[in-house]
What we know:
Blueprint: E1 9-14, H1 22-30, E2 35-38, E3 47-51, E4 54-58, E5 73-76, E6 81-82, H2 84-96, E7 104-107, E8 111-112, H3 115-127, H4 140-149, H5 161-179, H6 184-191, E9 202-203, E10 207-208, H7 210-224, E11 228-229, H8 231-238, E12 244-247, H9 271-276, E13 287-293, E14 296-299, H10 311-318, H11 325-332, H12 342-353, E15 365-368, H13 371-377, E16 384-388, E17 398-407, E18 412-414, E19 417-419, E20 424-425, H14 432-435, E21 438-446, H15 463-476, E22 479-484, E23 492-494
Helix pairs in contact: 3-4, 3-6, 5-7
The protein binds guanosine-5'-diphosphate, 6-O-phosphoryl inosine monophosphate and magnesium ion (MG).
Amino acid sequence: MKLLKGKKTIAVVCNQWGDTGKGKFVDYFGEWADIIARGTGGANAGHTIRLGNKEHIFHLIPSGILYDAKGKINIIGNGVAFDPAVVEHEMSLLKKSGCSFKNLLFSKDAHLVLPQHLLLDRIKESKAGSDKIGTTGRGIGPVYEDHYARIGLTVNDLLNPKIFEEKLQRNLRNKMVVLRQYDKNVIKKIMQHEHLGSGLFYDAKNIFNIDAIVKEYTRYGKLFKKNITDTDAFLRKAVGKKKILLEGAQGNLLSIDHGTYPFVTASDCTVQGLAKGVGLRENDVEMTLGIVKAPFMTRVGEGAFPTEFGGEESAKWCGTPGINKETEKEKFGDLSLDQTDDFKLGVAVRMKGDEYGATTGRPRRTGWLDLPFLRYSVQYSSSDVIFTKVDVMDTCKEIKICVAYEYTGPEYIVGDKVLKNGSRLNIVVTDKDVLKYCKPIYKTFPGWLSSIRNLRKMKDLPQKLKNIIKFIEKEAGIKVRIISVGPDREETIMVDG
Ligand code: GDP
Ligand code: IMO
Ligand code: MG
């Protein structure tokens, strides 16, 4: 592969709010790699691989697993929130598709998702009112909180039941103080959720049945014994010798450190966090490819989205429980991209792009590509970019790109700058109290109005699309290396051959 010539360690990350096609490209580069490793997030991720008419969705198992039988090694690194129940479930589904797991390794140091994390994630969200984040409910925030509070349990503890129990007791003592404040009936209901063993871990008096938890997690220890190892040491030995592909999760704009805080996830989803999450140094990564959905983008969950089609109305609609692919289809039927109403255009793009959460089934909010965000995000990845889902906009007559914002709020101090009503922002300020006053300034382009799904060469793309790509490259200071024109492996254009 010309693009990766001479490279040994590369990373695929997302420059937006996730769901940009990391699964597709990890699978795509899986052919090249010897080792594929995840280092951030947990089962909040949903990475899709489409092969012919078969779709595989991975939450925790790296997207290189389909190459396991070819001897490629897949690793869940130390930075991942490891939910053994999800891993077992994923492995059983994959087994049915004939997938092997001869080369799947789990870091002994990854932190465990436990029933209390799933309970706390769900209960806090249900009580947060307008402060809710719209989490995936996979316990991610509470796991990383425990990690930093130094009361977490790790995968290694699965192998030592006595130590596991001691640490669990200590962790739960800490949690009970918080949990006693909540309504017992709400707790009881959440504890019956299938992600919480359908009531297996519930005890009416003490909330948690410690014996049941220890028993189940000891079983996981036995089940995964062969997979658990020191993956940091393994990768450090391999770096510079084997071809390593790091699989990002979520996206830079969801990073706990650099994203649209507080509407973020709980790990650092940039390449820095990713390298750290597999025990490597950032400068071990020789090429970072950052994915960008273009020329539209999506977000799922709460938080600002200045270019959202239909603005508030869309955010509210997409956050309404029960709205999913089926209910939208029933309500709106088939919508073309020819919509004059912005909200309806958002629904149409969602339907055309099949933008429904791979983890939760929630509708993803849709909007125009936003250059202030892109300029900001690539600072944390690199200027090497993959454009995905371009084909979704094939039938759109007019393409808008947000080139800057006009700040329309009251005077506000941001570090060494003062924002005033009318200030122009070329690069985003991720502060929510700024974002709510950011009015996008658009440049409009004519759509290319032809199907690009069968095209495989840059030179064959419609000139109108090439103009848009060139404009974005210049404006955002990026280089588009790959253009994705469909979900399948082969629906891919390598820009430089
Ligand atoms: P990830 O979380 O970044 O791995 O992305 P998801 O799997 O959550 O969402 C991306 C969706 O877009 C998946 O359903 C992919 O199969 C699909 N996809 C990826 N690239 C393309 C593309 O270029 N065009 C189209 N139409 N779909 C794509
Ligand atoms: P992939 O890897 C899109 C979002 C949630 C929520 C916020 C916090 O498939 O791109 P969390 O459960 O992590 O505490 O939720 O982050 N979120 C994602 N959005 N893609 C993802 O992963 C996401 N993982 C978390 O919707 O807004
Ligand atoms: Mg996803």
